[in-house]
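Example record

One chain of 233 residues, shown exactly as stored in the release files.
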Amino acid sequence: MGAALSSSNGLSLRRYGASRGSHSHDHFQVLIGLDGVLDLEVEGRGRRVGAGEGWVVTPGDRHDFESKDGSRCLILDTTQDLWAQCAGRAPLAPQLLALARYLALCVSEPATSPTALHQAPSLLLEAWGPVVPNGRRRAIDWQALSDWARGRWHRPLSVADLAAVACLSPSQFAQRCRDEQGMSAMHWLRAQRLLHARQLRDRGIGVSETARRTGYRSPSALTAAMRRSTTPS
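Predicted structure tokens for this chain:
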């Protein structure tokens, strides 16, 4: 990977090749494909960014990247918190590619387009679709989030996974979970898994099958978890 050109506001043009890279950073990184296809793996989840497509990598998320046939992307590195509401979803604006190509030209000739470069972060944020104005908090649909997790017990789930579905940063989601559910995010996730297991057992599903469906490593691990949850503290 190489950063071909960059501007003073966090906007840059980067070329990616077949050499695989991996890193994380303490800011949001917004990627918009200009040409070719960039293969991303963010915290174990795969994503392909082609021309006119985009993705937001949240702070702290380790991501691997490569482009077997080569690709070029417009990149925005930013600490603006509003990008947390764009994480985990693709941009909505159909004209994103045209905007990205225009901004790429501006990065190439910064002296001739200072206004466009100054407005670039706001224009890209707008391209992702509506965000909650005036600092109002996006409501978390806890039931929908629980339903989403139920379909994924077969693999380890992290706070970052939950945060991406809720369109929040991991730290924001963790705080909201403490505020609204009275427990840590991982405690809430374990509680949802155990609740699902109890519901399956109540329906007459055997211990082994319940453990398999809810991602416990063994029937005995499920039995121990259920016993702990009913033991007075």
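Notes: The CA atoms of residues 28 and 83 lie 7 Å apart.
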